[in-house]
C-alpha cells in the first residue's frame, strides 16, 4: 500500500469504507476504549469534531480491546456507550488490534510513518495520529495528550488548505 487512501476499513455496520472517502480532510485517527483511564477523552474528541468538522476535519474512532481488555462488549455496546455518555457523532469503526499478529493494516501504516518515542508499538488506548489533507501522517500523540492540546496543530493544517 503506497497511500493511506489505499486502505479499507469496516465501519460499525460491517460496511467496507475506503479511506479515499476522507481525501482532502484533516484526520485524527484514534484507538479508543470505553473502560479506560483515558475514556473521558471522548468528550475532548467530540469537542474537536464539533469545532472543526465543518472546516474539513474528521475524527476516526477505532475501538481496541488489546490494552487491559478496556473495550469489552460488542461494537453496538461500545457505540451506544459513546453516544449516550459522550454524545459522540464522529465515525466509529469495528474493534481492531493495533499491535501484533492481527494488527489492522491502517495502524501498521500509521506506525510505519510516525514512530512513537523509542518504539513503533502503540503502548495504550487513545494514541492519536494526525493526518493532513494529502494523507501524510504528521504527528503521533501519546495517550496522555488531551485532545484540546491538539487543536493548534489541527488549525494549522486546516489553514494551510485555504
Write the layout of secondary structure elements.
Elements: E1 8-10, E2 16-18, E3 26-32, H1 41-52, E4 57-63, H2 75-86, H3 105-113, E5 128-131, E6 137-141, H4 151-160
Parallel strand pairs: 3-4
Antiparallel strand pairs: 1-2, 3-5, 5-6
Short structural summary:
The chain is an alpha+beta fold. It has helices at residues 41-52, 75-86, 105-113, 151-160, and strands at 8-10, 16-18, 26-32, 57-63, 128-131, 137-141. The model has no long low-confidence stretch (mean pLDDT 92).
Supply the key terms:
about 160 residues; alpha+beta; Glutaredoxin; four-stranded mixed beta sheet; two-stranded antiparallel sheet; 4 helices; 6 strands; globular
Instruction: Determine the fraction of residues in helical runs and give it as a percent range.
Output: 25-40%
CATH class designation: Alpha Beta
Number of strands: 6
- Major β-sheet, in short? 4 strands, mixed
What would you give as the CATH superfamily?
A: Glutaredoxin
CATH architecture annotation = 3-Layer(aba) Sandwich
- Structural class designation: alpha+beta
Amino acid at each position: 500500500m503506497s497511500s493511506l487512501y489505499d486502505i479499507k476499513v469496516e465501519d460499525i455496520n460491517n460496511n467496507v469504507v475506503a479511506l479515499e472517502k476522507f481525501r482532502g480532510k484533516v484526520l485524527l485517527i484514534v484507538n479508543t476504549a470505553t473502560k479506560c483511564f483515558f475514556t473521558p477523552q471522548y468528550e475532548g474528541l467530540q469537542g474537536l469534531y464539533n469545532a472543526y468538522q465543518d472546516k474539513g476535519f474528521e475524527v476516526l474512532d477505532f475501538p481496541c480491546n488489546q490494552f487491559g481488555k478496556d473495550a469489552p462488549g460488542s461494537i453496538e455496546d461500545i457505540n451506544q456507550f459513546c453516544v449516550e455518555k459522550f454524545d459522540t457523532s464522529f465515525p466509529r469503526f469495528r474493534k481492531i488490534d493495533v499491535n501484533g499478529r492481527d494488527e489492522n493494516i491502517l495502524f501498521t501504516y500509521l506506525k510505519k510513518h510516525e514512530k512513537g518515542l523509542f518504539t513503533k508499538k502503540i503502548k495504550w488506548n487513545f494514541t492519536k495520529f494526525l493526518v493532513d489533507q494529502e494523507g501524510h501522517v504528521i504527528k503521533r500523540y501519546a495517550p496522555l495528550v488531551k485532545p484540546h492540546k491538539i487543536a493548534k496543530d489541527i488549525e494549522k493544517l486546516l489553514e494551510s488548505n485555504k
